[in-house]
Specification:
The protein is α/β, with parallel strands linked by helices. The protein has one domain: Dehydroquinase, class II (Rossmann fold), CATH 3.40.50.9100. The protein has 5 helices and 5 strands; from the N terminus they run E-H-H-E-H-E-H-E-E-H. It starts with a strand and ends with a helix. 29% of the residues are buried. GO terms for molecular function: 3-dehydroquinate dehydratase activity. Homododecamer.
Amino acid sequence: MKLLILNGPNLNLLGKREPEIYGSLTFEEYLEQLKNKFPNIVFEYYQSNIEGEIIDKLHEVGFSYDGIILNAGAYTHTSIGIGDAIKGITTPVIEVHISNTFSRESFRHQSYISPNVKGIVIGFGLKSYELAIQSFL
């Protein structure tokens, strides 16, 4: 099984940014834990702060991978383009959020991604990614 974990803006700051919300691990440290826990899965990881690069990555792998786990960060609430890119590919996508977006500012309650994904995992910290992986098994 081949999965892409695709992270959006500011998620490169995990481990440093608001640790009370996002925790103290970097994503790279967490990814090593996932690789050890799921040795039969081939993981690719990509992070970008640029909307167009996220769309390009979805187009690149969206017809050949077994699944995509997407945390689009703030683009979740603003990007019709990312939502349309997901609609245009055949690889199933799980939308993931580390924090409970519904317990935060009201603008975070809207997702342009959700209508086009297989499922959503929200609010379980980094464990949200593991739950998304489980959905593909």
